[in-house]
């Protein structure tokens, strides 16, 4: 039995492009869909658009995690082995393990003929939003043999947003998560590693769904769709590339300009989440470490 992506009994989480309800587009890590179902059969259909690395779909079925390699520029039909259990009911969570090194277009699902979708429990009311780079995205989190060492050479297989501090924190607090994170990204355009030599900074990405021009027209995000109680900003690690001006001279012109832009970025976040919108909204904007000193507001 084929299930459309916009079926009301399945639940999505993350900053998603819903311009076509029959083909939602996943861009950011930690983006996910979950549902409960009966039967012994499960498939997901999707199309993967790749820019770099190898890409993988994350899956947690009845508490057991696995991942599946994605072919590029064609429809992927992935069958998931469904274990037997006493009541024949199952819970699945599909999720985006990696950042905007690729886009995923969700085309639908399939369960056994005669099986059915079941109601999910209510979604958590707590909401967190994170703006960050590779650490927030969960890059190389599965490279456990390299703890405390230089990251290994890899093609994306070590990256898993499930083990990012962002999603781990959300799970510990029973909160929803929007993880606006991209490996190699800096605050400013023209700095960092992402899309070098034409780097895209968080200043350009933060208010977008699609921010990677490789995949087509840039798309704006409607901030009315998701209002977090906590916003975490963890940016600055990549801003020392290609020039580490901050550590060389904390008060140089470029360093002062960076701090001015960072302050303006925080102000923009406060503007899209004004305190008067909800008495429950409280903003916890982190301090970013760059060079040897810390910026405070």
End-to-end Cα distance, whole Å, is 54 Å
Give me the number of helical elements: 5
**Count of strand segments:** 17
Q: What overall form do the CA principal axes indicate?
A: globular
Strand fraction:
25-35%
* Structural category: alpha+beta
Uncertain spans? 276-297
Helix fraction, binned, reads 10-25%
Average pLDDT works out at 91
**The biggest beta sheet, please?**
6 strands, antiparallel
Order of helices and strands: EEEEEEEEEEEEEHHEHEHHEE
Structural Rg: 20 Å
Secondary-structure topology with pairs:
Blueprint: E1 2-3, E2 11-13, E3 16-17, E4 25-26, E5 32-38, E6 42-50, E7 56-61, E8 64-69, E9 75-80, E10 89-96, E11 102-111, E12 117-118, E13 126-132, H1 134-137, H2 165-172, E14 175-181, H3 202-205, E15 230-234, H4 245-248, H5 253-272, E16 289-290, E17 293-294
Parallel strand pairs: 13-14, 13-15
Antiparallel strand pairs: 1-11, 2-5, 3-4, 4-11, 5-10, 5-12, 6-9, 6-11, 7-8, 7-10, 16-17
Task: Please explain how this structure is put together.
The chain has 297 residues and is α+β, with helices and mostly antiparallel strands. The radius of gyration is 20 Å and the shape is globular. The longest helix is centred in the last third of the chain and has 20 residues, at 253-272. It starts with a strand and ends with a strand. The strands form four sheets. Strands 1, 3, 4, 6, 9 and 11 form a six-stranded antiparallel β-sheet that branches. Strands 2, 5, 7, 8, 10 and 12 form a six-stranded antiparallel β-sheet that branches. Helix content is 13%, strand content 29%. The chain is built from five helices and 17 strands. The chain has helices at residues 134-137, 165-172, 202-205, 245-248, 253-272; strands at residues 2-3, 11-13, 16-17, 25-26, 32-38, 42-50, 56-61, 64-69, 75-80, 89-96, 102-111, 117-118, 126-132, 175-181, 230-234, 289-290, 293-294.
């Amino acid at each position: 039995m084929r299930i459309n992506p916009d079926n009301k009994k399945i639940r999505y989480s993350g900053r998603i492009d819903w311009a076509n309800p029959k083909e939602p587009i996943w861009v950011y890590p930690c983006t996910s869909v979950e549902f409960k179902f009966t039967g012994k059969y499960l498939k997901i259909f999707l199309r993967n658009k790749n820019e770099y690395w190898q890409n993988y779909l994350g899956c947690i079925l009845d508490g057991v995690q696995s991942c599946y390699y994605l072919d590029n520029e064609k429809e992927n039909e992935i069958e998931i082995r469904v274990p037997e259990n006493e009541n024949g009911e199952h819970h699945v969570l599909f999720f985006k393990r990696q950042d905007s090194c690729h886009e995923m277009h969700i085309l639908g699902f399939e369960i056994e003929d005669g099986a059915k979708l079941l109601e999910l429990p209510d979604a958590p009311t707590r909401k967190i939003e994170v703006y960050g780079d590779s650490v927030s995205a969960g890059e190389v989190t599965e490279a456990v043999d390299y703890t405390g060492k230089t990251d290994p050479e890899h093609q994306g297989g070590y990256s898993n947003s499930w083990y990012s501090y962002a999603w781990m924190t959300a799970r510990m607090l029973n909160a929803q998560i929007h993880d606006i994170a991209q490996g190699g990204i800096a605050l400013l355009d023209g700095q960092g590693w992402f899309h070098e030599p034409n780097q895209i900074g968080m200043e350009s990405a933060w208010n977008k769904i699609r921010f990677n021009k490789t995949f087509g027209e840039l798309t704006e995000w409607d901030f009315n769709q998701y209002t977090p109680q906590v916003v975490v900003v963890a940016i600055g690690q990549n801003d020392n590339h290609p020039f580490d001006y901050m550590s060389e001279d904390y008060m140089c012109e470029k360093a002062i300009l960076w701090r001015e832009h960072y302050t303006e970025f925080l102000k923009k976040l406060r503007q899209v989440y004004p305190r008067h919108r909800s008495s429950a909204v409280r903003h916890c904007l982190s301090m970013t470490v760059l060079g040897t000193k810390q910026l405070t507001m």
